[in-house]
Fold this protein.
Amino acid sequence: MKKKVLGICPRCGSRYLRTGDWHSCEARCGFRVGDLFGAKLDDDQIHNLLGGKEVLISGCKSTKRKGTFALVVKMTGVRQFAYTKRNGQQRTGYDAEVARRFPDKKFEDK
Ligand SMILES: [Zn+2]
């Protein structure tokens, strides 16, 4: 399957790849860019996020608001998370820790 480099993994420095429908760190260090605030990121957004740039994402959802809204996010680090699978297995992974803010006018005008 065709591979596309989306950026550099912030956890281990390996390449971060898109392979078909899946994207993850080439070295499988456990880091993966997940959905952010209910929104799926496309390749350009993942590329810019991993590059440390601010990324405008639309389609964000919140339990406190109706409908969807846009946010500007920027990666600030790597966050570890842990969860227990249904069979009781403990799993840990890493995803992007982000700062977020509401878009200002220059984004809205687009
Ligand atoms: Zn990695």
Remarks:
- Residues 41 and 48 are 10 Å apart (CA to CA).
- The pocket of zinc ion is lined by residues 9, 11-12, 14, 25, 27, 29, 31 (CB under 6 Å).
- The chain has a mean pLDDT of 92.
